[in-house]
Amino acid sequence: MQIIDKTAQLAQAVAQAKERHQTIGLVPTMGALHEGHLSLISRARQENDLVVVSVFVNPIQFNNQEDLAKYPRTVEADCRLLEQAGADIAFVPTVEEMYPEPVATVYHFGPIEEVMEGPRRPGHFSGVAVVVRRLFDLAQPDRAYFGEKDYQQIAIVRNLLEQIKYPIELVACPIVRADDGLALSSRNARLSANARAMAPAIYQTLCQAVEMSETDDVDDVRQYVLDALESYHLVNPQPDDLKFEPEYFEIVDDTTLQPVNTWQGEHGRVGCIAVWLNGVRLIDMVRFR
Ligand code: PAF
């Protein structure tokens, strides 16, 4: 595996692959790799000749500077994992290398960014789009791999691809969960042991919601999830004053991402959640229909 930190070097490796008519799979990451990322890499490995994995904590997608400062950075361990996972190129640029000039581009995505993460993280999706487009320009992939945990991000990247008209196949990969159900995330590493033990209740509550959706209205299911998490520490007393603080739980159309109030419709229904626990913001999603 080649470890590349310069954009010119990546462009050269990509040009060589193109000359050989090799297909390229890109897995964009911010590092602190876990099994979720490895599942994307394994899928990319199966479907492409050359697998490029970027490891770059993109400062312009963080609207909260504390979150950026605390984001886990484990580049050496990441490169070891990438080598084992069969990546061909680990692209690990510095911020200066990625953004030699101040970033002036702002992307807009209309209604799909006006819900859930959008209003709560101003500028986040534009920052994601800027870095993803830059990675697309550099790696020129045939396919790009994203995890469904960041469900809204996938819709944003799909919309970006429509805006810029790049012929890249977006491959959305299912969430990978720990044995106890917690969605794998780089942020899980920041949970205390007690918080980590409590965190699986998020997915358990979402599974309850899926069961309830057989008999109950959308609004009742939505309210159930919020109430169950908000009162969790009262029903199950926790050490260290741990409690869930849900930021949102929305049941939305799986394509337009607009909140729905019926289970029936042209498209499927997904539930997306963001919850604070122990100073860490966790997100998850489930499919209802
Ligand atoms: O999902 C992530 O890890 C990031 O948002 C991404 C797509 C790598 C862009 O920085």
Topology (elements, then pairings):
Layout lengths: L1 E3 L2 H13 L4 E6 L5 H13 L2 E6 L9 H6 L4 H11 L3 E3 L3 H4 L18 H4 L3 H16 L3 E5 L3 H14 L4 E5 L19 H6 L2 H12 L5 H13 L1 H4 L9 E9 L15 E9 L2 E8 L2
Parallel strand pairs: 1-4, 2-3, 2-5, 3-4, 5-6
Antiparallel strand pairs: 7-8, 8-9
The chain binds pantoate.
Q: Which properties best describe this structure?
A:
289 residues; alpha/beta; Rossmann fold; Pantoate--beta-alanine Ligase, Chain: A,domain 2; 2 domains; six-stranded parallel β-sheet; 12 helices; 19% strand; binds pantoate
Please give a structural write-up.
The chain has 289 residues and is of the alpha/beta class. The protein folds into 2 domains: 2-173, 3-Layer(aba) Sandwich (Rossmann fold), CATH 3.40.50.620; 186-288, Pantoate-beta-alanine ligase, C-terminal domain (Pantoate--beta-alanine Ligase, Chain: A,domain 2). 40% of the residues lie in helices and 19% in strands. The protein has 12 helices and 9 strands. It has helices at 7-19, 35-47, 65-70, 75-85, 95-98, 117-120, 124-139, 151-164, 193-198, 201-212, 218-230, 232-235; strands at residues 2-4, 24-29, 50-55, 89-91, 143-147, 169-173, 245-253, 269-277, 280-287. The chain has a 6-stranded parallel beta sheet, with helices on both faces. Strands 7-8-9 form a 3-stranded antiparallel beta sheet, covered by helices on one side. Strand 2 (24-29), helix 2 and strand 3 form a beta-alpha-beta unit. The chain is globular and about 60 Å long. The site of pantoate has 10 residues, from strand 2 and helix 7.
